């Protein structure tokens, strides 16, 4: 059970795919919603009651501008949900510097800059939720090495940030999910194989997996703990 989130100011980075489901759930709870996008404004604008911002979370200046706009509009930020991510398969022998840079930027910089800059306007008792991956805690899947490494960095970053943000009274935790929604970059066959390998003890549908992800985010928006990485792998570990 979550505490009331009504009238809390919530910023979601990444307004498409699962971000839409989280935004919908939060809207129904009466929050003041901020949704930022990098390039897909149309997806972010599906929520007519949201304050929509263009923001490249990998770019510090862009994030600072977004935070200033949130401060100007609402005066504060209570909850930060960091969803921006990339998930592209790449063979070990084909990994390039570009692959490393893209994954590091999306997952490490894209987590750190929003938290560093938004924490300036987050009062004591605020929350941040990051998204790592089940591979940070358990079994590794092949073909995604830069993704696996940088998502594991998100888990470590979350624990370190809990120490840094503790004196400010800001709580931060992470979800380490298994596969939830099919990435656009892989085929249906590849996705079915990943899901079959992942959903071992609990044969959840895609819709059920998404709902569990959303419910976990909502819980972490009000918990009185910090620095934890919560596995959401449906029995994989």
Automatic annotation (TrEMBL):
UniProt keyword annotation of Oxidoreductase present: yes
Family annotation (InterPro entries): NAD(P)-bd_dom_sf (IPR036291), SDR_fam (IPR002347)
Any GO molecular function: oxidoreductase activity
Pfam family, one: adh_short_C2
Domain of life: Bacteria
Keywords: Oxidoreductase
Family named by the database record: Belongs to the short-chain dehydrogenases/reductases (SDR) family.
Protein name, as recorded: Short-chain dehydrogenase
Organism name: Candidatus Zambryskibacteria bacterium RIFCSPHIGHO2_02_FULL_43_37
